Protein backbone atom coordinates (compact mmCIF):
# COMPACT_ATOMS: atom_id res chain seq x y z
CA UNK A 1 0.00 0.00 0.00
CA UNK A 2 1.33 3.41 -0.96
CA UNK A 3 1.33 5.93 1.81
CA UNK A 4 1.32 9.61 0.99
CA UNK A 5 2.55 12.35 3.26
CA UNK A 6 0.28 15.36 3.23
CA UNK A 7 2.11 18.65 2.72
CA UNK A 8 -0.97 20.71 3.58
CA UNK A 9 -3.78 20.41 6.02
CA UNK A 10 -6.97 19.32 4.34
CA UNK A 11 -8.30 22.76 3.61
CA UNK A 12 -12.08 23.01 3.81
CA UNK A 13 -13.51 25.93 1.88
CA UNK A 14 -17.02 27.37 1.73
CA UNK A 15 -18.33 27.13 -1.82
CA UNK A 16 -21.07 29.75 -1.59
CA UNK A 17 -21.83 33.03 0.16
CA UNK A 18 -25.35 31.91 1.02
CA UNK A 19 -24.48 28.42 2.23
CA UNK A 20 -21.12 28.71 4.03
CA UNK A 21 -21.74 25.38 5.78
CA UNK A 22 -21.49 23.58 2.41
CA UNK A 23 -17.78 22.88 2.19
CA UNK A 24 -15.36 21.71 -0.44
CA UNK A 25 -11.91 20.34 0.19
CA UNK A 26 -8.53 20.97 -1.43
CA UNK A 27 -5.26 19.36 -0.38
CA UNK A 28 -1.77 18.74 -1.68
CA UNK A 29 0.57 15.91 -0.79
CA UNK A 30 3.99 14.92 -2.10
CA UNK A 31 2.58 13.73 -5.42
CA UNK A 32 -0.91 15.10 -6.03
CA UNK A 33 -3.13 18.17 -5.90
CA UNK A 34 -6.61 17.01 -4.86
CA UNK A 35 -9.81 19.02 -5.25
CA UNK A 36 -13.27 17.97 -4.08
CA UNK A 37 -15.74 20.86 -4.37
CA UNK A 38 -19.55 20.91 -4.24
CA UNK A 39 -21.19 22.40 -7.32
CA UNK A 40 -24.00 24.86 -6.68
CA UNK A 41 -26.74 26.35 -8.82
CA UNK A 42 -28.99 29.40 -8.59
CA UNK A 43 -26.34 31.88 -7.31
CA UNK A 44 -24.92 29.31 -4.91
CA UNK A 45 -28.23 28.68 -3.16
CA UNK A 46 -28.61 24.99 -4.00
CA UNK A 47 -25.85 22.34 -3.84
CA UNK A 48 -25.95 20.20 -6.99
CA UNK A 49 -23.35 17.53 -7.55
CA UNK A 50 -19.66 17.49 -6.91
CA UNK A 51 -16.45 18.31 -8.81
CA UNK A 52 -13.49 16.02 -8.06
CA UNK A 53 -10.03 16.37 -9.55
CA UNK A 54 -6.74 14.70 -8.66
CA UNK A 55 -3.78 16.14 -10.56
CA UNK A 56 -0.21 14.82 -10.36
CA UNK A 57 2.20 17.57 -9.32
CA UNK A 58 4.41 16.83 -12.32
CA UNK A 59 1.70 18.16 -14.64
CA UNK A 60 0.58 21.14 -12.49
CA UNK A 61 1.87 24.61 -13.33
CA UNK A 62 0.93 28.28 -13.10
CA UNK A 63 -0.84 28.20 -9.74
CA UNK A 64 -2.49 31.50 -8.81
CA UNK A 65 -5.40 33.18 -7.04
CA UNK A 66 -7.37 36.15 -8.29
CA UNK A 67 -10.59 38.07 -7.82
CA UNK A 68 -13.41 37.98 -10.34
CA UNK A 69 -16.53 40.08 -10.47
CA UNK A 70 -19.67 38.80 -12.20
CA UNK A 71 -21.28 41.99 -13.44
CA UNK A 72 -24.67 40.39 -14.12
CA UNK A 73 -24.92 39.13 -10.51
CA UNK A 74 -23.82 42.49 -9.13
CA UNK A 75 -26.41 44.39 -11.19
CA UNK A 76 -29.20 41.89 -10.43
CA UNK A 77 -28.34 42.07 -6.70
CA UNK A 78 -28.51 45.88 -6.72
CA UNK A 79 -31.86 45.79 -8.57
CA UNK A 80 -33.34 43.35 -6.04
CA UNK A 81 -32.03 45.47 -3.15
CA UNK A 82 -33.59 48.61 -4.64
CA UNK A 83 -36.83 46.68 -5.13
CA UNK A 84 -36.65 45.67 -1.46
CA UNK A 85 -36.26 49.27 -0.34
CA UNK A 86 -39.25 50.31 -2.45
CA UNK A 87 -41.37 47.54 -0.86
CA UNK A 88 -41.00 48.86 2.72
CA UNK A 89 -44.18 50.95 2.47
CA UNK A 90 -46.35 48.03 1.32
CA UNK A 91 -44.84 44.92 2.94
CA UNK A 92 -42.17 45.05 5.61
CA UNK A 93 -41.55 41.30 5.61
CA UNK A 94 -41.44 41.18 1.79
CA UNK A 95 -38.95 44.05 1.80
CA UNK A 96 -36.67 42.28 4.29
CA UNK A 97 -36.80 39.06 2.22
CA UNK A 98 -36.00 40.99 -0.97
CA UNK A 99 -33.08 42.77 0.75
CA UNK A 100 -31.63 39.48 1.99
CA UNK A 101 -31.98 37.82 -1.42
CA UNK A 102 -30.54 40.90 -3.13
CA UNK A 103 -27.54 40.97 -0.79
CA UNK A 104 -26.95 37.24 -1.37
CA UNK A 105 -27.05 37.68 -5.16
CA UNK A 106 -24.87 40.79 -4.95
CA UNK A 107 -22.19 39.11 -2.81
CA UNK A 108 -22.27 35.97 -4.97
CA UNK A 109 -20.95 38.22 -7.76
CA UNK A 110 -17.64 38.77 -5.92
CA UNK A 111 -15.51 35.65 -6.28
CA UNK A 112 -12.07 34.46 -5.29
CA UNK A 113 -10.56 32.14 -7.88
CA UNK A 114 -7.96 29.47 -7.16
CA UNK A 115 -6.58 28.40 -10.53
CA UNK A 116 -3.89 26.12 -11.90
CA UNK A 117 -2.91 24.58 -15.19
CA UNK A 118 -2.76 20.86 -15.65
CA UNK A 119 -0.94 19.82 -18.82
CA UNK A 120 -1.72 23.21 -20.35
CA UNK A 121 -5.45 23.17 -19.50
CA UNK A 122 -6.55 25.81 -17.02
CA UNK A 123 -8.65 24.66 -14.06
CA UNK A 124 -10.51 27.26 -11.98
CA UNK A 125 -12.09 26.76 -8.59
CA UNK A 126 -14.54 29.54 -7.67
CA UNK A 127 -14.83 30.42 -3.99
CA UNK A 128 -16.71 33.16 -2.10
CA UNK A 129 -14.87 36.43 -1.52
CA UNK A 130 -14.39 35.71 2.21
CA UNK A 131 -12.23 32.65 1.38
CA UNK A 132 -9.52 34.80 -0.27
CA UNK A 133 -7.07 34.41 2.61
CA UNK A 134 -7.47 30.62 2.74
CA UNK A 135 -7.09 30.39 -1.04
CA UNK A 136 -3.85 32.42 -0.93
CA UNK A 137 -2.46 30.23 1.85
CA UNK A 138 -3.34 27.11 -0.12
CA UNK A 139 -1.71 28.60 -3.23
CA UNK A 140 1.54 28.99 -1.27
CA UNK A 141 1.29 25.38 -0.03
CA UNK A 142 0.83 24.08 -3.58
CA UNK A 143 3.75 26.14 -4.89
CA UNK A 144 5.92 24.85 -2.05
CA UNK A 145 4.89 21.26 -2.81
CA UNK A 146 5.69 21.80 -6.50
CA UNK A 147 9.13 23.21 -5.58
CA UNK A 148 9.89 20.22 -3.34
CA UNK A 149 8.68 17.84 -6.05
CA UNK A 150 10.91 19.46 -8.68
CA UNK A 151 13.94 19.59 -6.39
CA UNK A 152 13.56 15.89 -5.54
CA UNK A 153 13.71 15.07 -9.24
CA UNK A 154 16.57 17.43 -10.16
CA UNK A 155 19.31 14.99 -11.18
CA UNK A 156 21.90 17.73 -11.84
CA UNK A 157 21.49 19.15 -8.35
CA UNK A 158 21.73 15.72 -6.69
CA UNK A 159 24.77 14.78 -8.84
CA UNK A 160 26.49 18.06 -7.94
CA UNK A 161 25.83 17.50 -4.23
CA UNK A 162 27.16 13.93 -4.43
CA UNK A 163 30.30 14.99 -6.28
CA UNK A 164 30.86 17.85 -3.80
CA UNK A 165 30.62 15.37 -0.93
CA UNK A 166 33.17 13.06 -2.61
CA UNK A 167 35.58 15.95 -3.24
CA UNK A 168 35.22 17.12 0.36
CA UNK A 169 35.85 13.60 1.66
CA UNK A 170 39.01 13.28 -0.47
CA UNK A 171 40.24 16.73 0.62
CA UNK A 172 39.62 15.89 4.30
CA UNK A 173 41.68 12.67 3.98
CA UNK A 174 44.76 14.58 2.78
Explain this structure to me?
- Helix content is 41%, strand content 33%.
- It contains four helices and seven strands, in the order E-E-E-E-E-H-H-E-E-H-H.
- The longest helix has 21 residues, at 132-152.
Order of H and E elements: EEEEEHHEEHH
Kindly state the mean pLDDT as a whole number? 84
Tally of DSSP β-strands: 7
The main sheet comes to: 4 strands, antiparallel
Query: Count of helices?
Result: 4
Overall SS class? alpha+beta
Q: Give the strand content.
A: 25-35%
Give the overall shape, derived from the CA principal axes.
Answer: rod-shaped
Low-confidence parts: 1-5
Question: Could you tell me the radius of gyration in angstroms?
Answer: 24 Å
Distance between the termini: 47 Å
- Main-sheet strand order equals 1-2-3-4
Helix coverage percent: 40-55%
Short description:
The protein has 174 residues and is α+β, with helices and mostly antiparallel strands. It is 41% helix and 33% strand.
Write the layout of secondary structure elements.
Blueprint: E1 11-14, E2 23-28, E3 32-41, E4 46-56, E5 60-69, H1 71-86, H2 92-107, E6 110-118, E7 121-128, H3 132-152, H4 155-173
Antiparallel strand pairs: 1-2, 2-3, 3-4, 5-6, 6-7
Helix pairs in contact: 1-2
